[in-house]
Amino acid sequence: MPAARTVLITGGAGGIGRAIGAAFAQAGDSVVLADLDGAEETAKPLGGHGIRLDITDEAAISAALDEVGPVDVLVNNAGLLSIHGRLLELPGADLLRILSTNVHGTFLMTQLVARRMVERRTAGHSAPGVVVNLSSIGGRQPTPGMGGYESSKAAVDALTRWAAIELAEHQIRVNAVAPGPVATPMLAAAMPPGSPAHDAWVARIPDGRMAAVEDVAAAVVFLASPAAAHITGTSLPVDGGQLLT
């Protein structure tokens, strides 16, 4: 049996974050969920640990990492999806909010965790480090009204490649998972199954369904696993073929 790793998952109290945590826990890893609210309650059934964390606060991240201890796998799942607006109407302050969480927050988490991974290797710890970012196929396929979010995810893809090329010498792999629409409770509340909006989204997907949270989690676990040991700098679509249309 491989040694259990410590996996830190931001945005861990949401539907996708919880599914990722459950998948890593099932694989025998030690799971730490981080979120603004609800992380402790979400982590308990998984046998994990929950912490409150604002990923845009550098001092808070450092304090949280002191509490958590060495991290083997970082999953940057936290992000804002709820702010939308067309190019001519979206307030500039709203775009900055999106970028602050989705891009700057992902950057800070990656930088601060990777620094500690490098320090551990310098001190003789030989295990490789892994970072998996949550992106979106929207970074490559635009949808009117969602450009602020989609621009942030295009930046996450670029950040993934940047981190991958610079951290490879330290044996840290960095990849991203890019889902299409995912059937989370939040999405179901916004566009219930059978609604025109829901049906319009599904019509764009050759596979004929939205991704389940477990589909996304399986891709994250794969990219973090030894089976993906020679994969870095990629953004893996989990979209049922939507990018083909």
TrEMBL record:
<dbReference type="Pfam" id="PF13561">
    <property type="entry name" value="adh_short_C2"/>
</dbReference>
<dbReference type="InterPro" id="IPR036291">
    <property type="entry name" value="NAD(P)-bd_dom_sf"/>
</dbReference>
<feature type="domain" description="Ketoreductase">
    <location>
        <begin position="5"/>
        <end position="195"/>
    </location>
</feature>
<comment type="similarity">
    <text>Belongs to the short-chain dehydrogenases/reductases (SDR) family.</text>
</comment>
<keyword id="KW-0560">Oxidoreductase</keyword>
<dbReference type="GO" id="GO:0016491">
    <property type="term" value="F:oxidoreductase activity"/>
</dbReference>
<dbReference type="InterPro" id="IPR057326">
    <property type="entry name" value="KR_dom"/>
</dbReference>
<dbReference type="InterPro" id="IPR002347">
    <property type="entry name" value="SDR_fam"/>
</dbReference>
<protein>
    <submittedName>
        <fullName>SDR family NAD(P)-dependent oxidoreductase</fullName>
        <ecNumber>1.1.1.-</ecNumber>
    </submittedName>
</protein>
